[in-house]
Specification:
The complex is a heterodimer of chains A (265) and B (214).
Chain A: E1 26-29, E2 32-35, H1 39-58, H2 61-77, H3 79-84, H4 89-105, H5 109-113, E3 115-116, E4 123-131, E5 134-138, H6 146-157, E6 161-165, H7 172-182, E7 191-194, H8 198-207, E8 213-215, H9 224-232, E9 237-239, H10 247-251, E10 254-262
Chain B: H1 7-19, E1 31-35, H2 39-50, H3 71-86, E2 90-92, E3 108-111, H4 118-121, E4 128-134, H5 137-145, E5 152-155, H6 160-169, E6 174-177, H7 202-206
Helix pairs in contact in B: 1-2
Classes of the chains: A alpha/beta (265), B alpha/beta (214).
Chain lengths: 265, 214
Amino acid sequence: MTRLPVQKTYKLYVNGAFPRSESGRSYEAQDANVAWASRKDLRDAVRASREAATGWSGRTAYNRGQILYRVAEVMEGRAAQFRELGISREEVDEAIDTWVWYAGWADKLSQVLGAANPVAGPYFNFTVPEATGVVGVIAPEEPPLLGLAQRLAPVLVGGNVAVTIAPEAAPLAAVTLAEVIDTSDVPAGVVNVLTGRKTELGPWLASHMDVNAIDLAGAPAGARPELERLAAENLKRVATSGEGRSLKHASEFLELKTVWHPIGV
Amino acid sequence: MFDDAPLDQAIEGIVNGIYFNQGHVCCAGSRLLVQESVLEPVVDKLKRRLARIRVGDPLDKNTDLGAINSREQLDRVSELVAAGVGEGAELYQPPCELPERRYWFAPTVFTGVAQSHRVAREEIFGPVLAVLSFRTPDEAVEKANNTPYGLSAGIWTDKGSRILWMAQKMRAGVVWANTFNRFDPASPFGGYKESGFGREGGLHGLAPYLDTSA
């Protein structure tokens, strides 16, 4: 008996679930049908991420590190699945190592980026980095898996939550990464992945008043100035770091809080 | 301001927080959240203290509260205070003589302020304090953070663990605990949310001028 193939429709990842677009739209990419997210899908994703923000930033840094490492573990087990999507072994390895690298930083960020400040008076004064909140990520088109890992892990490590627009031409690895994240103890809503048209979704993401920061690394050519202008409306932090992994990139999504208290008897 | 705070000391901090420089301060403590159990004594003390504020010539070293910086700003303060009255908050201004020439505004306290009132939502940049109340620490946090701004916050309580808990929850770049309006070149200053980008002061103020390789 021949078995019918199980066709897969690649869906969105919003609030820990894999819905189709509420618009019913889909588009073809990499010989598959992929959900084509609408403005409403994006707003649902922002709302889900906002609700997840307090819980994620409130976890201990150590626990966030454990969970990011868990993403690497599960990716390692699914390496073949990424290979089937045409991702090279080198890229899969590098993406996994990126999660491990940032996982290690989780409980070291505040020591390296924080400070005890020697003020000229009887006060104890210290500065700690904290998550800025909801971060919009427009993932680079290339490389489709590694690019996303390199833009997503530094957002999450400091306690931020993410609304991500996947690479438009090759979105399948991003959806598969969402499936990995979903099974890696990352709480629902902390990562949301939308597939669709960047020129359509980008401006809604950049102008959303409940998004605190945005990474335009994968913004379409020429769209960046307009997206930055929209982001300025509510003073979104706009990430400027280049490729690769860096502590500086993670720190672009961190706010610095300085606390004063008098010293006395 | 919690019910275990040293009230007199806190009143001094609150008065300094909002009336310093006529409230023309970006980090002015313009909303005061008081725990309900001490609301009455705090408001009473505040009103008594307000009556002792000396309004007058800014060049006189005995003056506490000088002139508003322009006709435009005086109009803005007056307009917002009128809106506060119109929206149902209770206005208090101590009896005080204001100079006849130029731009003056008496120290002002609003009580019975709701979060929806304009005096609690907009930046007044004047000598106007809006007093709200809360019952639980969670409620204090929620009300304090219910703003698109996030430059500074203050906490008045004698309980150490509560200071640290509150300081962690405040979405503000500078948190003063049992003090207010302290500044130092070695201490980073700057806001969360719509209160600006980056920090000035301290190591974190210098960082953007550097290109570090790590």
